[in-house]
Specification:
alpha+beta; TIM Barrel; Rossmann fold; 24% helix; 24% strand; globular; BXL
């Protein structure tokens, strides 16, 4: 009753004055834009039925026609640009952005991404389309989990392994997405995810119970970025994670959602569930008996909005109220936050009042946004090895070869949780832009993982007397009634609705289905393989029996072996349907696998000395909860961290042939590249570089851009250095708790050299002696201008069980050749705050501290300065 009492008091004192502002608001204050979002929400709550309240607590919130409230979708994505939409700007994957150590540029990128989201959203509404999943004003970004283990497939979505770097980047993301703090309306609602202590593995996340996380690891590693986004950026949403923490699912965990988030940190806004996390209470975790009890548990713990694929538990909230498991006043607390968030967006106001609603579609993938994508891709490039300074390459040195599975692979550059760009510059195209096509010899050379190549039998299949497959399409998902079109497909196909492309003329972009049929006569007795990939419902049948079937929300390649007998006919059928709001994708081929013969490649490269090998991984291998596994990969995670063997062997063959080998490694995670340090002359870590990633690679390889990227994650020597994947203790993980890396956190080479002089700590300043200014001389001693990333690490001397060192400040320093800068870096008192076992809280305790400063986290790259933190 306290909520209603406060609202009534407010209206009795000030309501009459405010309500005179508009005639329409006299009877319905929630329609009055002069009131605060909270005041408007408090009024609207009183006008809703319990069933309507429950509907508004679902991520696909239904409209309420009697009040003129439109449909609202809480789930959109903007991980590195608006996701699941076409013709948008696709920026580098977040782990690559983190390598830039440039949070200012991150802010501008997400300011641009929010412009594009607003423009496309309002353009859709003005063209008669409803708000729908993946095109809304609530974006579930950023992912500020700590990338604690390189095996985690979703680590690419994070800003690395360090809490401070993650915090700086995450705050910039939120501010860019939400718009100026003093604006009347939020541009978008950003979301800090996945709260908390979530960093894989993907295969067990729905059942995993983390009951051995120490208080130190919780407060010093897993929570700082969430606290920063709540307190420093006022993020409007926090997403609770799937797994359990100390026996309680995160979305039903009162300690996380109430004690820490709201009471300790003062969070006032929305908690949204990861998709299916509440239904996991009774389907996976078994802590609730059914949907009714799960709904009550989630709401009472503090989860405001439930996301699911299908079957909302929160739809049962009226039943939970009827059973006395939760009361309606508790439900109203959630509605106040939900509705206030929508009022903050201007969702229920006239567009003329909301500046963001009038952003033109001309901003989408405009020249400025393309330039931002290129600039970030350039800054993310991290040079790990450069023997005998083979880089940069000379543009007049003759022909080069560009080989490898990622050389001409556009989707790889897009990363995951991505949109589809207007155009993509692949690595091959980037290098061709420097030398011309005639001077670049290309060969894929090998696959990402498979140690064989497929000789296609597609054209040997027959349908209606013609080579290939007969394709039949329906404009419904059930393959019923009259087909929209029937046609013949003569070659292996790769179909997509990305970019508003139809699978065939007259076939809708959504809610359609298809059947592909052919008869194949086996030329010999052998094993063949079907190569398939689909986003949507996919089923492969051979002679009427199902050989594979799945529902995928992303395209994952699968290899399906099948034994055939010479002369026997096989009826091959593919059934497909587009599902949910995902874009449709389908690819298919089949044939015989044969061993790779590298001698053919070496012969093709005769007379060419320099080979750029573009390999690594892709989001076909690492990603979120993937149903397809390969050797070394499981469910989107990795079971080892080495370069796949087929690529490793290719690099060895190139080196044995006397080539100068430049390895461009594209991955979203750290790799154990010990053999590659021998087989390769240079190694460039290129991450997933976005729509202009290939141009950035070429710019760096040819010296048009001097690399300045630094590793946001530790590159280990081997998997033997890592504890068990499901062990969430930080001991032995990341640069903060181990110092025997192949390439350490913060490491990255340049084409020039920098010397870092002795630091001067000065004196503590401020009213409470709460700030220390370091002055550090940095000199560019090389022959070209460049950028160094100066890093400062802190260690509490008295804390013998704490981290070896922890990043607490960084700054990009750009210098012309031969120049020196006196770089000033501020260390506030909070930079000395660590978890105190005795006080059982994070505090900046007076005492002696070590400051390590330099250009990587490796001890050989750092200098020591001791300081005393006063009382």
């Amino acid at each position: 009753m306290k909520i209603y009492t406060l609202v009534r008091k407010f209206y009795s004192c000030t309501g009459l004055l405010l309500l005179t502002l508009t005639g329409a608001a006299q009877q319905q204050p929630w329609k009055n834009p002069a009131l605060t979002p909270q005041q408007r929400a408090a009024d609207l709550v009183t006008r809703l039925t319990l069933e309507e309240k429950a509907n508004l607590m679902m991520d696909e919130s239904k409209p309420i026609p009697r009040l003129g409230i439109k449909r609202f979708s809480w789930w959109s994505e903007a991980l590195h640009g608006l996701a699941n939409n076409d013709s948008v700007t696709v920026f580098p994957e977040p782990v690559g952005m983190a390598a830039s150590f440039d949070d200012s540029l991150v802010y501008h990128i997400f300011d641009a991404a929010s412009d594009e989201t607003r423009a496309k959203y309002h353009h859709a509404l003005r063209n008669g389309k409803q708000s729908k999943r993946f095109l809304g004003l609530s974006v579930w970004t950023p992912n500020v989990n700590i990338f604690r283990d390189p095996r985690w497939g979703r680590g690419q979505e994070t800003y690395g392994e360090d809490p401070y770097l993650t915090s700086r980047m995450g705050v910039a993301v939120v501010k860019g997405l939400q718009g100026p703090a003093d604006a009347k309306y939020r541009k978008l609602l950003a979301c800090a995810k996945h709260y908390a202590v979530h960093s894989g593995p993907e295969w067990s996340r729905h059942e995993l119970n983390l009951n051995k996380v120490t208080p130190r690891d919780l407060w010093d590693t897993y929570l700082p970025a969430f606290r920063s986004l709540v307190q420093d950026a006022e993020v409007r949403e926090v997403m609770c994670a799937y797994q359990r923490l100390d026996d309680e699912p995160c979305c039903g965990n009162s300690r996380l959602l109430q004690t820490i988030l709201r009471e300790k940190w003062g969070f006032q806004y929305l908690v949204v569930s990861d998709c299916g996390a509440v239904t996991d209470f009774y389907t996976s975790h078994k802590v609730s008996s059914d949907a009714v009890h799960a709904a009550a548990k989630g709401a009472l713990a503090g989860t405001d909005v439930e996301c699911v694929w299908e079957g909302y538990a929160y739809q049962q909230i009226p039943d939970a109220v009827a059973k006395g498991l939760i009361n309606e006043q508790e439900v109203d607390k959630h509605l106040l936050r939900i509705l206030a968030a929508r009022f903050e967006l201007g969702d229920m106001d006239d567009d003329a009042l909301v500046p963001w609603a009038n952003i033109s579609m001309n901003v989408v993938n405009n020249a400025a946004h393309r330039q931002l994508a290129l600039e970030m891709a350039q800054k993310s490039m991290t040079l790990l090895q450069n023997k005998q300074q083979v880089l940069p390459l000379a543009k007049n040195s003759g022909r080069i070869a560009v080989v490898g599975p990622n050389a001409d692979n556009a989707p790889m550059l897009w990363g995951n949780y991505n949109g589809t760009p207007v155009r993509t510059i692949t690595i091959l195209q980037g290098l061709q832009s420097k030398l011309g096509k005639d001077n670049v010899v290309y060969d894929k050379a090998c696959d990402l993982v498979e140690n064989k190549v497929t000789q296609s039998y597609f054209t040997q299949a027959m349908a209606d007397g013609k080579s290939g497959f007969k394709a039949t399409y329906w404009n419904n998902r059930e393959r019923k009634d009259d087909p929209a079109i029937t046609q013949q497909i003569a070659n292996p196909f790769k179909l997509t609705t990305a970019g508003q492309h139809e699978f065939a003329s007259g076939v809708h972009l959504e809610a359609f289905s298809a059947r592909y049929e052919a008869v194949f006569t086996a030329p010999r007795t052998e094993e063949i393989v079907f190569k398939c990939g689909a986003t949507g419902y996919f089923e492969l049948l051979v002679n009427g029996k199902s050989a594979a079937r799945y529902n995928n929300w992303r395209t994952l390649p699968s290899r399906i072996p099948y034994q055939v007998e010479k002369g026997k006919q096989y009826n091959i059928e593919i059934r497909y349907a587009q599902l949910n709001n995902w874009q449709a994708n389908l690819e298919f081929d089949f044939g015989k696998e044969v061993d790779i013969d590298y001698s053919v490649l070496i012969s093709k490269l005769k007379g060419i000395n320099t080979v750029v090998f573009a390999g690594g991984l892709s989001t076909l291998l690492e990603g979120e909860e993937m149903p397809v596994s390969y050797p070394g990969f499981k469910g989107g995670d990795r079971t080892d961290i080495e370069l796949p063997l087929v690529q490793r062997n290719c690099l060895k063959a190139l080196k044995a042939a006397g080539k100068t080998v430049i390895f461009v490694n594209c991955s979203g995670s750290a790799m154990a590249l010990v053999p590659e340090t021998t087989s390769c002359d240079a190694i460039l870590q290129a991450w997933y570089g976005g729509e202009s990633g290939g141009q950035a690679v070429a710019d760096v390889l040819f010296g048009d851009y001097n690399p300045s990227g630094k590793l946001p994650v530790t590159f280990y020597k081997s998997i033997s250095q890592l504890p068990d994947f499901e062990d969430y203790t930080m001991k032995g993980r990341t640069y903060r708790f181990m110092n025997d890396a192949l390439f350490p956190f913060g490491y990255g080479l340049s084409y020039t050299r920098f010397t870092i002089g002795k630091a001067d700590a000065g004196k503590w300043t401020g009213l409470q002696q709460d700030s220390l200014i370091l002055t550090i001389p940095v000199t560019n001693t090389g022959k070209r201008s460049g950028t160094e990333v100066l890093q400062v690490y802190v260690r509490k001397v008295a804390d013998t069980t704490g981290p070896i060192k922890t990043l607490r400040s960084f700054q990009r320093v750009t210098l012309p050749a031969g120049s020196t800068s006196q770089v000033k870096m501020a260390l506030p008192r909070s930079a000395f705050a660590f978890y105190d076992n005795n006080q059982q809280e994070v505090s900046a305790a007076p005492g002696e501290y070590e400051l390590w400063y330099g250009n990587s986290s490796a001890e050989k790259d750092l200098q020591l300065l001791k300081v005393f933190l006063p009382q």
